[in-house]
Specification:
Elements: E1 4-13, E2 16-26, E3 31-35, H1 42-50, E4 57-65, E5 68-69, H2 75-81, E6 86-89, H3 93-96, H4 103-113, H5 120-133, H6 139-143, H7 152-164, E7 170-174, H8 182-195, E8 200-204, H9 208-214, E9 217-222, E10 225-231, H10 232-237, H11 242-250
Parallel strand pairs: 3-8, 3-9, 6-7, 7-8
Antiparallel strand pairs: 1-2, 1-4, 4-5, 9-10
Helix pairs in contact: 4-5, 4-7, 5-7, 7-8
The structure holds adenosine-5'-triphosphate.
InterPro entries: AAA+_ATPase, ABC_Ni/Peptide_Import, ABC_transporter-like_ATP-bd, ABC_transporter-like_CS, P-loop_NTPase
Membrane topology: Peripheral membrane protein
Subcellular location: Cell membrane
């Protein structure tokens, strides 16, 4: 059974249809990229999956996470799934972190909230472990820092620790490295790859080279619809849709090398 199944998803704001008839699945341990120009509906799709659509938006169709229907699920139930069964990493960690709370406590809190650690003390210890797993130097000390005392890359590591804390079945990354410099981007991508073996991963990005590095399958979104999908190596080497060809042409990804294999832009 797929971890995530989206079937015939529509999202509208009044008369405006933002997402139209979107369907896809992600299995356990599968990594799927979602690409498309700004405004094509990627973030709206991700918000619908997380049950985080703003009030003026309406969703119809079906989204199931491990068989549970997300569309129309009451907020109380959704909040039990978010942070435990599914979590999300955003582009700007500063807005997602609490500026007034030590980051170790923020990591511990998501475990205490979902009771995935027996008590607060174990949650604190597990938080320090997690901060080490996302390779924050001196995790004991880092746990006591406030978000403003950390660099952008370190804050994104904290976000990743929070997202991974309860070993979610589904991790959604929405442009998680766009705001970071290139070296830090590559480190964060490595961490995401190293820590999501069993999770289903939906990875939203403008950067086709990142998709080629991280994902096995890709969905191409244009004007609210998925216009093309398939294995990254097929879609990037032999795109069928005109829009995908344009995306590839305007990216700095050199799709194939002299042997016809997918080549990615190096990150250093
Ligand atoms: N709350 C809202 N009310 C009305 N329209 C919205 C709302 N949220 C998003 N939209 C519109 O929905 C469309 C899709 O937006 P979305 O943020 O999903 O695009 P995106 O592909 O994620 O773009 P980006 O890459 O810039 O994040 C856009 O036209 C946007 O203006």
């Amino acid at each position: 059974m797929s971890v995530l199944t989206v079937h015939g998803l529509n999202v509208s704001a009044g008369d405006a249809e933002l997402v139209r008839d979107v369907s896809f699945t992600i299995g356990k341990g599968e990594r799927v990229g979602l690409i498309g120009e700004s405004g094509s509906g990627k973030s709206v799709t991700a918000s619908a999956v997380m049950g985080l659509l703003s009030e003026e938006l309406t969703a119809s169709g079906s989204i199931t996470l491990n068989g549970k229907q997300i569309v129309g699920m009451p907020e109380r139930q959704l909040s039990r799934l978010r942070g435990r069964d599914m979590s999300m990493v955003f582009q700007e960690p500063m807005t997602a972190l609490n500026p007034a709370m030590q980051v170790g406590k923020q990591v511990a809190e998501v475990m205490s909230l979902h009771r995935t650690q027996p008590d607060r003390r174990s949650a604190r210890a597990a938080a320090v472990d997690l901060l080490g797993r996302v390779r924050l130097p001196d995790p004991q000390r880092a746990a006591k820092s406030y978000p403003h005392q950390l660099s952008g890359g370190q804050r994104q590591r904290v976000m990743l620790a929070i997202a991974l804390a309860n070993n979610p079945s589904l991790l959604i990354c929405d442009e998680p490295t766009t705001a970071l410099d290139v070296t830090v981007q590559a480190q964060i991508l490595d961490l995401i790859l190293a820590n999501t073996n069993d999770s289903a991963l939906l990875f939203i990005t403008h950067d086709l080279a990142v998709v080629a590095t991280v994902c096995e399958r890709v969905l191409v979104m244009y004007n609210g619809r998925i216009v093309e999908s398939g294995l990254v190596r097929d879609v990037f080497t032999a795109p069928e849709h005109r829009y995908t060809r344009q995306l590839l042409a305007s990216s700095d990804l050199e799709a194939t090398d002299e042997n016809g294999r997918l080549r990615t832009v190096s990150h250093d």
